[in-house]
Amino acid sequence: MRTRQTSRTPPTSRTRRAARAGQYTALLGYLLLLAFPLLWLLSTALKSPRELAALHPAWIPRDPTLANVRQAFAEQPLAHAALNSLLVAFCTAAVAVLIATPMAYVMARHRTRTARAATGWVVVSQAFPFVLVIIPLFLVLKKLRLIDSLTGLVLVYVVWALPFALWMLVGHVRAVPVELEEAASVDGAGRLRTLVSVTAPLLGPGIAATALFAFVTAWNEFFFALVLLKSPGKQTLPVVLTHFIGAEGVADLGPLAAAAFLATLPSVAVFALLQRRITGGLLAGAVKS
Amino acid sequence: MRTAIGTALVVLLLLLAGCSPGGRTDGGPVTLRFQSLAWQQESVAANKELVREWNATHSDVKVEYVQGSWDSVHDQLLTSFEGGEAPDVIHDASDDLADFAYGGHLADLTGLLPARLRSGIPRAGWATTTFGHGVYGVPFLQEPRVLIADADRLRAAKVRIPTPGHPWSWAEFRQVAKRLSGPGRYGVAWPLKEPVSATLNLSLSAGGRLFHRNADGRVTVRFTPGDEVVPRTIRDQVTRDHSAPASTLGSGGSDTLPGFFSGRYAMVPLGFSYRQQIVQQAPKDFHWTVLPAPAGADGLTQGVSPQTLSVSADCPHKKEAVAFIDFLLRPRNTVRLALGDWMLPTGTQALKDPALHTAEYGWATGTALAARLRPAPAQSVRGYPEWKDKVATPAYQEYYSGAIGLAELRHRLERDGNLVLARYQR
């Protein structure tokens, strides 16, 4: 009996091992594909100008150099711009989440005609192109004396990120069983208490995912920052990056790649920090319980 | 939980307080905001240094340097003008000024320009910034299109080396390109990502004008034999002689440099300022030279859109702004800016500077072309951007690739083009 079993086991185990190896290979290939732009950016950042102009570019720099990084920092106030971007992105994420969470709760729990219209408007508002709104927005901010101010920029980013944030959070709120809130109510908790003590903790992953979305939106945004900020000391990283590009698209490629690579790191870091919560958050609203 | 939310709110408020704009000092010296588009290291340094020098010697008028960006400069300025928040002194290119000038966003400098500045720049230069009866900018740097060539390949092929005094004709250029070609190697690579401005500017050499202004001031498109010479040469090189690859027709200038350095292309027509990239990127044993672009019936004439300095119409201190421009464009200072940008100054006095006449890096060749530079044909034509994007760019692209013939190119440029221009001239 035992002999028969052992004679059947090896092929199954080999098949499983082969399948698993195939899965890992496919996964590795997929990860490499995803990481390719970042790796290529890093490779470009470490190449000398002469290597950058080679007809057949090498995957790995032959003589890696940090000269581009040094030049990028020497030419432009990258560190200061990165701080501005961090400040703006963090504030945008925080304010967007603070506003979107209670709004999403109301829209998810009270399915009235107004709530449905509001959801529709949220979807439509995503379709407006930047150039359409920039001049009226500029005039409004000027009235509020918020041109050339990071506060003004945060305000714009919050307004811009809010519809999608709201849309994301509505799904997450709906995924929280309403019975839990009813139980809290039976135990004597008021609406605010229920929201803060029962619903909000369950919304953690959704809030983290929404915050990350708002953070990345603000971190990458270029056009509003270009138009609204005047003082050199207030410019954000995407605006400063364009200073490496000249007329007719000519670029100082090495320093640009070095600066662009460094500019991706904070987003990657925030992703890494919130990764677990986000995975849960992205899936939470996906199916109805 | 409540404590956590409270703490988060306090942190947020503190952060937002940190974001608030700093206070403005009332009274005191006049402050002008100068938005520069300089981007190359030496050029940015020269601009900042000049601003420092101005501030050190003018206690009553301070200039604040603002780094602008060529990318999206038009949209950024348009928004700033509409919102009344434009910089006081504006760096741009002359072909971007027409809309702003006609839109009333730029100050007419006619009565403000000092005599030295006015007389120091030739009439052709001023023509690039004159719209209607007003002057809306000071042209200060310009660049001709030149041929950057592999010196060793030219020597080996034993072709005549052209000079500004004795340039190649377009026909001779075609012959030379053929001679420099071989299996896997091309005599010339045309980077024609922007086919319209390159074609129109070079066509001036053959007497092409394309835009004709009638007695009533209206502009119409007419594709004359002079307008045919340059496009026909390029197309023949690509489709008939195979001395130019089709693959670079959609490329920018920088994209052709790797092929140039590796010997794939012997010549590349590029703007004069590309020399900076070539100095930086060319292999150490690569020998290159700067040649004048081919000449036609009108010799070495070609169109340019110089870089300009303008003053915002809303600037409350226009006299001071012009005084700063005058300081920035003193001959010695213009030379510093020109060297930083690897371009030519428009000012005749600055052009005489020995630093711009050295044989090294082809400076002398470029300087010799300065007198033949004219305003780009479309400079002051209203509706040109739309004509360029909707009609001319696809038409030229299809013609160069061999998809349409010369008759269809003419038909589209004239018929469709005049319909577009007519809308702007009602």
Overall description:
- Chain B: Pfam families: SBP_bac_1.
- Chain B: This is Cyclodextrin-binding protein.
- The complex is a heterodimer of chains A (289) and B (426).
- The two termini of chain A are 47 Å apart.
- Chain A is flat.
- Helix content of chain A is 77%, strand content 0%.
- With 289 residues, chain A is an all-alpha fold.
- Chain A is built from 13 helices and no strands.
- Chain B contains 18 helices and 16 strands.
- In chain B, strand 9 and strand 10 form a beta hairpin.
- In chain B, helix 2 runs antiparallel to helix 14, helix 8 packs parallel to helix 10 and helix 9 packs across helix 10.
- The longest helix of chain B has 19 residues.
- The radius of gyration of chain B is 24 Å and the shape is globular.
- The N terminus of chain B is likely disordered.
- Chains A and B meet through helix 2, helix 4, helix 6, helix 7 and helix 9 of A and helix 1, strand 2, helix 3, helix 11 and helix 12 of B.
Give the helices and strands, then pairings.
The complex is a heterodimer of chains A (289) and B (426).
Chain A: H1 2-45, H2 49-52, H3 67-75, H4 78-109, H5 113-125, H6 130-143, H7 150-175, H8 178-186, H9 191-202, H10 204-220, H11 223-228, H12 237-241, H13 253-284
Helix pairs in contact in A: 1-13, 3-13, 4-7, 4-10, 5-7, 7-10, 8-9, 10-13
Chain B: H1 2-19, E1 30-36, H2 41-57, E2 61-67, H3 73-82, E3 89-93, H4 97-102, H5 115-120, H6 123-127, E4 130-131, E5 134-135, E6 138-142, E7 145-150, H7 151-157, H8 170-179, E8 186-188, H9 195-203, E9 211-213, E10 219-221, H10 225-241, H11 253-261, E11 265-271, H12 275-281, E12 288-292, E13 302-304, E14 307-311, H13 318-328, H14 331-341, E15 344-345, H15 348-351, H16 363-369, E16 373-375, H17 384-401, H18 406-424
Parallel strand pairs in B: 1-2, 1-3, 8-11, 13-16
Antiparallel strand pairs in B: 3-14, 4-5, 6-14, 6-15, 7-11, 7-12, 9-10
Helix pairs in contact in B: 2-14, 8-10, 9-10, 10-17, 17-18
